[in-house]
Amino acid sequence: MSKLISRKRFHKTNSPAVLVLLGSAVFLWLAAASAQAQVNPPGPSDNVRVSFNGQVFVARPISESEEGQLFSIDVPRTIVELTELGVTGQTQISDRLIIEPYSIQFQSDPPGSVGGPGRTIPGVQQVSENFNPISLRFGSDVENPNGGGQLSDFVDVLIAGTLVAHFDLFDSPTVPETPVTFAGGPYLFDMMEPGRIPSLSDTLDIQQFLFSFVSDSTEEGLPPISVLPNDAFFSRPELGEAFSYDVVAFSDIDVPEPSSLVLAALGLIGLAARSCRRKR
Question: Which of 127, 136, 101 is nearest to 203 (CA)?
C-alpha cells in the first residue's frame, strides 16, 4: 500500500506542467547565458551606440578588463532616403540625408585622470555619464516645433542635448530648395561621475561631423546614388513623420552575471513546485 501511495505522489509531482516549466527555465537560462557571453562580459560595462530611428547599427561594449584603453569606433557613411509616390505612380526618392564617415574616440577610466576634475583642454564639455553626443532630427513635409509649426522639410542638430543648428526647406514652385550642409567639431566630452564634487569617469571625442540633406524641388525625384558595401543604408516612406539619428554613450551599466540568471531560473522552478503542491 505504501508503495502505491509513493507511486501516486511521484506521478503527481512529475506532472507534465512541472516538467515543461522546469525545461523552460533551464532552456531560458542556457540561452540567456549564451547570449550574455557573446554580447557583453559579466560586470559593469560602458557602451557606445549609433542608431537610426532606434535601430542600432554600430555598437561597441567595453568591459571592465578593457578599461583604460583608448578605442577608436568607426562609424560608416550613413545614407537615409525618404521615398514617395510620384505623378506616374512609381516610388521615387523625395529626400536624402548623407552623413559622412567619422570616428568616435572613447576612453573608459583614463589612466591618471579617473576621479579628477576633468581635462583642461580648450573646448571640452562636462556631461553626465549617460548622454547623447550627437542627435539629428529630420523630416519631410512635417511640422517642426523649432520651425514655428509650419510644414516643411527640416533638420535639427543637437550636441549633448542642445540645439545648435536648425534648417528649414520650404516647397516653392519658383525657387529650388537649397541643399543643407553642416560641418561641426571637434566635440570633446568629459563624462563625469555624479557626487558632491563630480569626478571624471570617461572621455568621448568626435573630431569632425559632416552631413548633407537634399530635397527634391522638381517633384521628379532625386537621382539614385551608388551605395558602397560598407555604407549604412536606410530607406523609409515619407509619411509626414520625423526621423532620428543618435549617438549614445553609456557608462557603468550593470550587466547581469550568469549567477543572476541561475537565480532567476531557480525562482521559476520554485514557483512551479509551489504551484504543484497547491494542486495536491
Answer: 127
**Cell digits of residue 32:** 540567456
For residue 112, the SS3 value is coil
Compute the distance between CA of residue 43 and CA of residue 256 in angstroms, rounded to an integer. 7
pLDDT in tens, 259-276: 444 455 555 555 555 655
The residues, ordered by sequence, that sit 6+ positions from 84 with a Cβ below 8 Å of its Cβ are 91, 92, 94, 140, 237, 238
Q: Which residues contact residue 28 at a Cβ distance below 8 angstroms, ignoring those fewer than 6 apart?
A: 264, 265, 268
Question: Cβ contacts of residue 270 below 8 Å, gap of 6+?
Answer: none
- The one-character DSSP state at 77 is -
Q: Highest mean pLDDT: which of 11-25, 114-128, 137-151?
A: 114-128
* CA 118/CA 85 separation, integer angstroms: 52
> pTM value?
0.72
Which residue is listed with cell 550593470?
Answer: 254
Q: Exposure pattern of 247-274 as b/e (b: 16+ CB <10 Å)?
A: bbbbbbeebeeeeebeeebeebeeebee
Alpha-helical (H) ranges within the chain are 2-13, 16-39, 258-279
Task: Report the distance separating Cα 75 and Cα 49, nearest Å.
Answer: 10
Evaluate whether 95 touches 153 at the Cβ level (below 8 Å).
yes
Closest C-alpha to 103, from 204, 206, 245, 202: 206
